[in-house]
Write a structure and sequence with these properties.
mainly alpha; 410 residues; two-stranded antiparallel sheet; single chain
Length: 410
Amino acid sequence: METTLLIAAAIKIGVFLGVTLTLVSVCVIFERRFSAIIQDRVGPNRTMIPLSILGFKKDLALPIGGLTQPMADGLKFILKEDFTPSYVRKAFFWLAPCMTMVPALITMAVVPFGSPIEFGDLVIPMAVADLNVGPLFIFAIASLSVYGITLAGWSSNSKYPFFGGVRSCAQMISYEIALGLSVIPVLMMFGTLNLGHIVEYQANNGWLLLPFWGEGLTAERWWMLIPLVVSFFIFTTSIFAETNRTPFDLPECETELVGGYHTEYSSMKFALFFLGEYAAMIIGSALIVTLFFGGWSIGFGIDGLLPTGAWWVSLLHVGCFLTKVTVFILFFILVRWTVPRFRYDQLMNLGWIVFFEAALINVFIAALILAVPHIGYLAFGVCLAILLVITGVLFAIAKSAIHAPKEGTV
């Protein structure tokens, strides 16, 4: 049995790394092709296999819609000169790109990407690490990526990279609070921190935002849609800020005419920052799908009709999970090329004055809805009215603080 578990763990790790790294490279071509469609241009479609360097007369052009572009990008970064300026703090300068890429890959290990497979009496979960504290593990490890960006700016010993690192650090810390608070109603709904159990519950009783079968048809579940939709909106927007994607890519500010915290980087160290961004986008999409849209579940009661533990069923669920993640990746790309960048003061006001208070109040509303069977509708109405009054007062104070004249201004 131990040998079977070790072999299964090795296979899962290989599949997990292979799929994640493949998705990272595919995201590049998605980004380029999608932006080309939005901007009404062709996009990358002429990257050829360079046979001329081997002595042939022509390069080989494959009619595969520019899928060779990620290979060309990878070779370009690998073959470029790895230049390190003499004035940087070299140890931290080299460590920073790894601290950006590695946490994004590690967090993916606890996400279930398929239904469990049965081998006799042995049930193997389709997750590299089936932890009972999955969301906490993800938040703990993902928060480490801020050190990579901060170290990149500080170790560059240059003014503008340092500014970019400080901005990114403040931005990520600010939105991590709203990100964590927005998940609390979801965890209160399920009563567990195991992501595998969360997905299985949704497969049997309706996805969190589409409760159309099983126990999802109850009145309490439909009332819970109000705080859950708010949680989804705050969580998704905070993921954009956490991954430094537009409209929250303030660390790379165009007004400075430089690239932000990675200005001094070149070659593969420079590429690792972008790979880390795309890997974080993938884990963000996977987490949204797992918590709100059923993870690997096909949905609508179909999962209950399939045999439990069969290998082909698990592969079908893996395909369903990857399809959902791909849809959200395309959504991330769509937002990048259609929504303008925020000002930094707008970014911080949104995180601290809007999302923080809204996520905190949303927790109380979810708790009140779940407590209705125990406290009754009268107590629920009174508590909700008091909460709404407090909310109005808080937002009025916050609005007056935003629009108050600053010292030294007219």
